[in-house]
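Standup notes, protein team

Yesterday: finished cleaning the Apatococcus fuscideae set.
Today: Ribonucleases P/MRP subunit Pop8-like domain-containing protein structure.
Blockers: none.

Input for Ribonucleases P/MRP subunit Pop8-like domain-containing protein:
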Amino acid sequence: MNDAEAKELPGRPKGTPRCLSSSQTTLQLAVLFEGRERTLRQQALAKLLQASLKQLYGVIGGAVAFDILSYDEMSASARIQVNSRDELKLKTAAAVVSSHQGTPCLIQVRPTLPLS
């Protein structure tokens, strides 16, 4: 798979991350559901973020490539790699999410330590 194809596959499976360059940043996200505990699959998180990006910025502006580097389904928390220039877009898209399949939720962006 070349880099152009990789950009078309946001939220790629854990085994195929791109190399972290100086223009990349990582974000730690956690999905919190109101009321009862609920699990969320990695693919559902990627689709939720993509839909929010598209709603906010349109098809072209919302075409943000990101990789889910690690994901814990039980806590619905993920470590996501994104180009630094798109970091604010992804944070904003995460902040405006208010539900998933009719269940109220929110996505927290947590502080992340740089990779060493």
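Follow-up from PR in the comments: The helical segments are 3-7, 42-61, 87-96.
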